[in-house]
């Protein structure tokens, strides 16, 4: 019974009285485990008990060492066994990640520069290899447990800022031998857990943003947000932190009602400023919430929307001309900027225009000799989704 084994291996073992006995007494654990179980189950259980006892005592570095050995023992078992024990593997993987994070905090407090999370990632790589390379028939394949392992590795790689290793995981999932069920499909009577799919899509969406793949980022993050259960408001808010700015980059602005619902009110004036082309208002809001965005790892993404604000500003000025002329004086833009409280000279404005033209936000060119912006007759300001597209 994989579920029962997983519950027994949880950090509280589902039995607080037994855990207290482990902490408060010094039983002959090795002899007891050896008498009760055969190898390597006896060693796995012994190390797991020692891990729990050390964790309960607040000795996190020692706890991690025992947890790592327990995981290594179980991996030997899991590699030769069928997929029934998959829930237990995920439970031990979670314990390993949490133990490593706690150990790193203890080491940092002592002034020791070490990364147990990095060590944990190396241990988990074996779990990843065992699941991803399993050749059992698909209905009973260990590959159905790969996403859980991958998500744990994603969390570690994001924690230690080693994101390049994430690409190897994604390539394995997108390979021909992996179950084609990443959008919730049922394949040969099996499907991935919704929680695992949501977590996977969330991390792939964030990685896509870092690679400037905005269309894919929106697709992955939208899936994660829409499939995340309604009562998981904290998780839905985490997803929206990145989905809101990526949609803004594609010309889709979140409603104030949605942002208020998930306590993301700070995005409301930013969305309004970008949509209206109010560059000064956008700069003020970005500066106001700079620390927050840096902490969330979204500052550069939100800052990118400044170009969208400029693009919308120039488009509005263009639309103010009743004849929709294709030639606009740069000095006209200067006067409009001054009217909104932004002091820019002609050279600075031409620099912004050149950047927008180069990036595809404006179709046209600058006539420096005549001091004019010359735009396309048909589609001077292409839809943002067409500009960014799929990289």
TrEMBL record:
One of its GO terms (cellular component) is transcription export complex 2. GO terms for molecular function: double-stranded DNA binding; RNA binding. InterPro entries: Csn12-like, PCI_dom, WH-like_DNA-bd_sf. It holds the Pfam family PCI. Residues 198-380 form the PCI domain. GO terms for biological process: poly(A)+ mRNA export from nucleus; post-transcriptional tethering of RNA polymerase II gene DNA at nuclear periphery; transcription elongation by RNA polymerase II. It comes from the Eukaryota. Belongs to the CSN12 family. This is PCI domain-containing protein. The lineage of its organism: Eukaryota, Haptista, Haptophyta, Prymnesiophyceae, Isochrysidales.
